[in-house]
Design a protein that fits this description.
The complex is a heterodimer of chains A (about 110) and B (about 110).
Chain A (H helix, E strand, L loop, with lengths): L4 E3 L2 E4 L5 E6 L6 E7 L5 E8 L2 E4 L8 E4 L6 E5 L8 E8 L8 E2 L3 E5 L1
Chain B lengths: L2 E3 L4 E5 L4 E3 L2 E3 L6 E7 L6 E7 L6 E3 L2 E6 L4 E6 L8 E8 L3 E3 L3 E6 L1
Parallel strand pairs in B: 2-12
Antiparallel strand pairs in B: 1-4, 3-9, 5-6, 5-10, 7-8, 8-9, 10-11, 10-12
Classes of the chains: A mainly beta (about 110), B mainly beta (about 110).
Chain lengths: ~110, ~110
């Protein structure tokens, strides 16, 4: 049973470009969460999604960031017009039924903005 | 808002020593979950344990043990007979509606 998959594992972008991070949850999991880990810091919640719905986006920056979890395919975290401060590790987690379940994390995407 | 404090930023111990990582949380909720995750140098996050607020039984898993004290709002993690492979950053987490992490404790086991 494959775990949470994230790709790419490493992403380099120049300032002003777009970054797209993909997350495929564990099989049977319909809840996805995105977290950001800035260098030498802990993880900060960004957004919680179920299929086709954003449940909680209280941790998302108001501009340039968006997330989706379509009916088919992976969840996407999109960062438009990236800036150097967006450089971080972005982790996706999934859980099977509800937000009360244990979240299992993917390996993360390391985004570097030049 | 909930708050999770891991006061120990970095700890170094010699291999085979026991080490305890502290976690203190603040909450007014009666129902919540507590977690520990491990982040080894390779960077992934590994789930270690989940405990709900109604279960104060301590848990032991091999060399790992967890001490949940609701009276002091603490959920400490002890590694017995530490090994080099235990070197990692350890995060304590609290969840009611969303998962909130502490800032982590970097544990280095010296061979």
């Amino acid at each position: 049973n494959a775990g949470v998959m994230q790709n790419p594992r490493h992403l380099v972008r120049r300032r002003g470009q777009e970054a797209r991070l993909r997350c495929s949850p564990m099989k049977g999991h319909s809840h996805v969460y995105w977290y950001r880990q800035l260098p030498e810091e802990g993880l900060k919640f960004m957004v919680y999604l179920q299929k086709e719905n954003i449940i909680d986006e209280s941790g998302m920056p108001k501009e340039r960031f968006s997330a989706e979890f379509p009916k088919e395919g992976p969840s996407i975290l999109r960062i438009q017009q990236v800036v150097r401060g967006d450089s971080a590790a972005y982790f996706c987690a999934s859980s099977p039924f509800s937000n009360q379940e244990t979240q299992y994390f993917g390996p993360g995407t390391r985004l570097l903005v030049l | 808002a909930q708050k999770v404090t891991q006061a120990q930023t970095e700890i170094s111990v010699v291999e085979k020593e026991d080490v305890t990582l502290d976690c203190v949380y603040e909450t007014r909720d009666t129902t919540y979950y507590l977690f520990w995750y491990k982040q080894p140098p390779s960077g992934e996050l590994v789930f270690l344990i989940r405990r709900n607020s109604f279960d104060e039984q301590n848990e032991i898993s091999g060399r790992y043990s967890w001490n949940f004290q609701k009276s002091t709002s603490s959920f400490n993690f002890t590694i017995t007979a530490s090994q080099v492979v235990d070197s990692a950053v350890y995060f304590c987490g609290y969840r009611d509606e969303k998962l909130t992490f502490g800032t982590g404790t970097r544990l280095t086991i010296i061979p």
